[in-house]
Write a structure and sequence with these properties.
By secondary structure, the protein is an all-alpha fold. It has one domain. Helix content is 62%, strand content 2%. The protein has a two-stranded antiparallel sheet with strand order 1-2. Strand 1 and strand 2 form a beta hairpin.
Amino acid sequence: MSYIEDTLVHIFNNIGNLICHQIPERTLWIGGSYLPVCARDTGAYLGFYLGYLLLSMRKKEACGPPNLWVTFFMITPMIVDAGTQFIGLRTSTNELRLITGLLFGAALAPFLVYSLAQIPTSRKLPILRNFLPKNVNLDDKNSWLNHQALGFGLLIAVALFFLINSITGSTNNLFYWLLSPLIIISVVLHIFLLPIFLAISFLAYLKNRHNP
């Protein structure tokens, strides 16, 4: 790799190191380098993109949350996989870590966007406000994102798993540069920028509450 490429890989790895253990045997080797985060995190952070794409299938006028049953079905495998490994019951595989991470991210992203609608200041953001439901009602049975949309996301996540799994171990560095920047952008957005936004929104809420 060139000096610039080596520098970018170093930067990506440093960012990934802030939120991931980066254990080599638990990290995918693609394009001659390890990805910036482990297989499970790779799946989750790429899965977020898939979840956001599903928002094009949302019911704009609906107030209920994304279908909770399908959301639970997609999120639970990663929790079980990570939890049972953490307490020492079993050792997972990179294939399981990747697919459960993809399902987790794809299901969590729409629920995250739906939840952000409860923060008044979120509607002031030019791009985000176009995707938020007009109203939020957790008891409403009319799902903002129904089971068909989430089911479609599940199928795409599986297809994406087979695609990534097929290039794992490849020496073509094009695959590294296709995946790593997307992973890093997702990490920065969800781990660093989103908490700052939430903190600012909470402070603005407190200020408006005390100064009507």
